[in-house]
Amino acid sequence: MNKRKTSSPDVHLNLNVRGLTLSAALAINERCAALRAQGKQIHMLGLGQSPFPIPQVIVDELKANAHQRRYLPVRGLPPLREAVADYMRRISGVEYGAQDVLVGPGSKQMMFVLQLVYYGDLVIPTPSWTSYAPQADILGRQIRWLHSDALHDWRLLPEELDSLCRTDPSRPRIVVLNYPSNPSGGSYTQEELKALARVARQYRLVLLSDEVYGELHHRGQHSSIARFYPEGTIISSGLSKWCGAGGWRLGTFVFPRSLHWLLEAMAVVASETYTSTSTPIQYAAVRAFQGGIEIEHYLTQVRRILRALGRHCARQLRDAGVRVSEPRGAFYLFPDFTPVAHRLKKRGIHTSDELCERLLEERGVALLPGSAFGRPAHELCARLAYVDFDGARALVAAEQIPATQELEGAFLEQHCAYVISALKKTCDWISG
Ligand SMILES: Cc1ncc(COP(=O)(O)O)c(C=O)c1O
Predict the structure, then answer these.
(1) Is the CB of 107 within 6 Å of ligand 1?
(2) Whose CA is nearest to atom 14 of ligand 1?
(3) Are residues 253 and 110 in contact, defined by beta-carbon separation less than 8 angstroms?
(4) Is ligand 1 within 6 A of the CB of residue 212?
């Protein structure tokens, strides 16, 4: 008998990868699709995907460039790098030029490459996006978690960062800061960013400022920490969230001059792995980053819908006794069910995984457990992505309502009905 054939093939897997499972957000999506295929009614509040269409002017630009077929320079199409630098200058007030920009196939891939080329710890506040930690695991990097809490709206506090850094002040570290936040929908004020920037400067940290939801600040008031710590901040962004173009796979990193050595190292890895980012997409992205009236108008309506829906969902949950922060951006809430834990425990629910599993089984509502965002298993938190609605229809309907008016219950009942009914089902389920 051939021994090699009978042994499990995964003994040949790299140890860092063995035992890892599909990214939580993608896994829940596949699970929901399978349940839907069985005819079950499922509310997909698991995967964080923009419900809105890509602005038409950007789609038109892609059509016009479908014939572009050549590989582009590894760092990105020069006019795109220029447009991104201009855009980041507008957002952050920092003087960037095309030479400071790296374009890649999604910011997720770029974060992986950054961690690959940088030798140091990855510091991640919790709760935070599901992929930072697995990327560090795959690469064998040390992860240092910084816990935050519901009382501080899940924000990283400067004293927490300081006390971690103080233990070994000169240790190389990348700190990830994501705002508006996935999963909490929270953000930072300028004063809060300044305070974090002071600590970052003191310990010469590399700050990876993940601003992929920046344009989805519900009041259009996003501000970058690069304004206060330009020399150590890399701004990460892309088309996926504000432009509704996750599947286009285009991400951008902007570096200060002092971190160009990282940009160059990333470009080397890119040149030996993915070569460059899709050519037609890069041409279309120039239009996206140049902005203009149509795109501003689109963003105003998108923010208005998300603001109304996020606040409505938070209110419903609070009325049901759940603790949840007021959302400031993106399309997420991170409800904490601890105040109703006594009711859940009576039904045998003790962990966030059990909470999500039972809610999906019993009411067909899919959330992602807090454990996927680095929170302790027994903390009854979950992420709710309020995106299960037809964004194109909602945009058309919002146009009919004067811009000075907030969108209200009747609008949401009509155009975001699936999310509203998922909330009702969740709240009924809690009071059980
Ligand atoms: C916080 C955060 N950062 C980064 C990404 C990755 O975005 P992309 O790779 O599509 O640019 C996501 C996507 O879900 C995200 O939620």
Answers:
(1) yes
(2) 48
(3) yes
(4) yes
132 CB within 6 A, ligand 1: no
- 361 — phi, psi (to 5°)? -65, -45
Q: What is the pTM of this model?
A: 0.95
Q: For residues 211 and 187, what is the distance between their CA atoms, to the nearest angstrom?
A: 10
Below-70 pLDDT ranges, the chain: 1-7, 25
Q: How far is the CA of 8 from the centre of ligand 1 (A)?
A: 34
Amino acid at 268: V
Q: Of the candidates 193, 206, 296, which has an alpha carbon nearest to the alpha carbon of residue 243?
A: 296
CA distances from 233 to 207, 270, 279 (A): 5, 21, 28
Greatest extent of the chain over all pairs of C-alpha atoms, in Å: 77
CB of 106 shorter than 6 A to ligand 1: yes
Mark residue 214 as left, alpha or beta (left: phi above 0; alpha: psi -120 to 50; beta: remaining). Answer: alpha
List the beta bridge partners of residue 233: 207
Ligand 1, closest atom to CA 128? 1
Q: What is the pLDDT of residues 202-241, one digit of tens each?
A: 999 999 999 999 999 999 999 999 999 999 999 999 999 9
- Does ligand 1 have an atom closer than 6 angstroms to the CB of 373? no
Burial label for 18, CB within 10 Å (0-12, 13-18, 19+), is: exposed
pLDDT, one tens digit per residue, over 59-83 is: 999 999 999 999 999 999 999 999 9
Angle value at C-alpha 264, between 263 and 265, nearest 5 degrees: 95
How many CB atoms are located within 10 Å of the residue 238 CB?
28
* Ligand 1 centroid distance, CA of 108 (Å): 6
